[in-house]
Amino acid sequence: MKIYKTRYLALLIAGAIAGASILEIYLSYIFAYSWLHILVIILLTFLVWFIILFYLLNNYIIARIKPIYKLIHSLRLNSDNLYEHVENKDIIAEVQKEVTDWAENKTLEIAKLKAGEKFRKEFLANVSHELKTPLFSIQGYIYTLLDGGLEDQEIAMPYLEKTKKNVNRLIHMVNDIETISRLEAGEIQPILVPFDFAKLVYDVFEHNEFQTLEKNVKLKFNNLLKQKTKVFADKKMIFDVMTNLVLNGIKYGRIDGTLTVTALNKNDELIQISVMDNGIGIAQEDLPRIFERFYRADKSRSRGQGGTGLGLAIVKHALEAHKQTITVTSEPQIGTTFVFNLKKAN
Fold this sequence. Notes:
The chain is of the alpha+beta class. Helix content is 59%, strand content 13%.
């Protein structure tokens, strides 16, 4: 929309008045005055009306618009001072600019709020869905035991074991939700220390030995690092990262399959770590979403595998806390490979 300044508006109106005066003067005095006299009268009429109209319009518009401008400007800057100094330049153009900028900012804020609300609803729905399975299982086992199952040892012990397993699953899920929430909020900051990455990998293998025995998965560490190469990172967070990636590879790997961790020198500052399995793989359309909370690429198979659906989300946020990213490549029925970097210790 085109904006006319006050002086141009006054000029336009004064010109119209002067034009009307020309006709009147010409008809009334064409024979009494010379053209010079007529021109002087026209110019004087135009000038007087221009000054009067400019003064009146300028004061009227500024008196009405400037408080609005001050209010919008102060609100946009989150300021409580509604009477801050405003330069007397083009107040209408300034108001238009302020309103446009404010509208754009509010549009972005509204879009973020809508996205946040959508994420909140999805998160609550996912949490509710994930909690239902273990809770209903626990409820069923307890009712069976209360209905006389406690007196039958062949029923009591297996049901108590299953109840314990589901309780542990709930505890694990709550802990994972708390961890990822704190990571996203920036409440957990990495405590950077130098440590031997190769030793950490072997500790992770040993920690998950029971899970490997269930599916007879062979764990291999392809260590291409120079002797005693250390990384500079939060040891506990990286232990959790590697544990989640290894468990993910075991869970979706083949029976009698292999999971390989490779560490190599990427450059003078970074080492590159890859975790590769030869499992069921991930469809290409699912790859962009696997690091989302509770997202499962193969819902029909993955729920039977257990877990909380938060492991890869924790991996992503833990590495982002180290200012690193993780990438994934996969082919269905061939396998999946995760790759990320860590800084070397000086």
